Amino acid sequence: MVAESKDKMEEYGISFIFAGTQMDDETKLHVVMKFDSMEALEKLRNDDELTERRRQAGAVIESGIQVPISSDYMTNFPDTFVVN
What we know:
Elements: H1 6-12, E1 14-22, E2 25-35, H2 38-46, H3 48-56
Antiparallel strand pairs: 1-2
């Protein structure tokens, strides 16, 4: 799903930093994504085509939990991932 949606994600200003399943429960996927703006997040939320791709990939959309974090944070990622 991510590979198929790369162009749209770039268009919206969205990039994946991390994606992986939980060690003790492979049905739980944890993803860290970077959005250029809150508008980019809204575009993702409102894109019916991407939502259907996520469903086809096995995502249960209704069980997803989104937790926005502030841009005021510390990281050990390379500078290319840091926006201050």
